[in-house]
Amino acid sequence: MKAAAAKGRRRGKSGTKPGAFVQRVTDLLMGKGKRRRIARPREPVVTPAPVAEEPTETEEQEPLVWPPERIALTDRLWGEGFATPGGAEYVTDFIQLLDLSEKKSLLNVGAGLGGPARVMTKEKGVWVTGLEALGELVEAGMELSVMAALARKAPITHFDPEDISLRERSFNAVVAFENFYTIRDKERLFKAFERCLRSDGDLLFTDYVLPDDKPPNAKVKQWFTKEPLRPSLWTVKRTVSFLSGLNFEVRVAEDITADYRHRVLAGWFAFVDSLTKAELTPIFAADIFGECEYWLHRMDALDSGGVRLYRFHVERLQDRRS
């Protein structure tokens, strides 16, 4: 860890050190010193545009969870096309449990920008259907699949996670990364996976879960308020119990919080190390601040022990005969 911290502090290729703001980001991620309020960098003064008499359609829309600036930032944090920590190497290791080939099909739920889907297709030849709930990610992710000549083998399409309907026995595997924790109707979701998986098919996913039935602690509650989509968490026990009650066998339910924390820090250290002083414009620094603040609350919740990240590997059993 000390070596990683030193790496985050050393001079970049340009010969300049990261700015004080970015150093503070690194210190906060490492848990150094007392947490204190960081003043956001001032943005340039912009002359307000004349107010339109009638609000436009764009002005009436809710703010995007993933505006283009955030997508560009996370591309640098986690790798092009990735919205979660780990990147291509992690996805490749993650799917080693699955018997995938070009003769099989896989459902990637919460596909994000499509990075994992494209990696799985390139590594295993498997046909991947990527489902994503946020329109801005669908559009950007599909564009990346088109650019990679994988529009047919790794398409990214929109779905409603609270009203999911999947064709029966159409996939050999379902894979998801930290995606189900905001879905309220998890029972419907897991039943849909049972229907869409073929016999001996695999459900492999990671998700945030509560460790027990105790009410969420203060750190977890604070994290809830900072998430764009409010979490709706199940306990580990409830997750395993419900899946076992379907035509599934839960093979693995493993706490991978420590490994996840390492991946988050590694991504931030590499990002900070890549920054140059010239890049740290007020606007870009503000974007960094916002993303870091988001992750700080998430890491606080994990470090408190009040929420954990688990990996689940579930196998669909043969259909029961009546």
Termini distance?
56 Å
Spatially, the strands of the biggest sheet line up as: 3-2-1-4-5-7-6
Sequence stretches where pLDDT stays below 50 over 5 or more residues = 1-19, 33-52
Proportion in helices? 40-55%
CATH first level of one domain: Alpha Beta
Give me the Rg, rounded.
21 Å
Average pLDDT confidence is 85
Strand percentage: 15-25%
For the sheet with most strands, the description reads: 7 strands, mixed
- What's the CATH superfamily of one domain, by name? Vaccinia Virus protein VP39
Helix and strand composition category: alpha/beta
CATH hierarchy: architecture of one domain: 3-Layer(aba) Sandwich
Total number of helices? 12
Q: State the total count of DSSP E strands.
A: 7
Order of helices and strands: HHHHHEHEHEEHEHHEHHE
The coarse silhouette is globular
Annotated CATH topology of one domain? Rossmann fold
